[in-house]
């Protein structure tokens, strides 16, 4: 089984989140993308405190596919500097982790 990652990003709206999620799964860069409910984000950007409504995505992928996944997110993401954070999955249901690995294998 390959190393599995949970990748987090946010998009400005549901349509862009759905489009990116579909692309990532169709291209086998992600086994699954959860599109969560919109949330309020507060952050500092270019010296000012900003607020925005964003749509979080939870992306399950393999470490082997991370570079291609990051490239795909950057290609479609409307933000100048998008959040892309990858967290290694330390434990999980073995069958599920195997499924993520299988679904993200280049085909």
TrEMBL record:
It holds the Pfam family CutA1. GO terms for biological process: response to metal ion. It comes from the Bacteria. Signal peptide: none annotated. GO terms for molecular function: copper ion binding. Belongs to the CutA family. PANTHER family: DIVALENT CATION TOLERANCE CUTA-RELATED, FI09726P. This is Periplasmic divalent cation tolerance protein. It comes from Azoarcus sp. (strain BH72). The gene is cutA1.
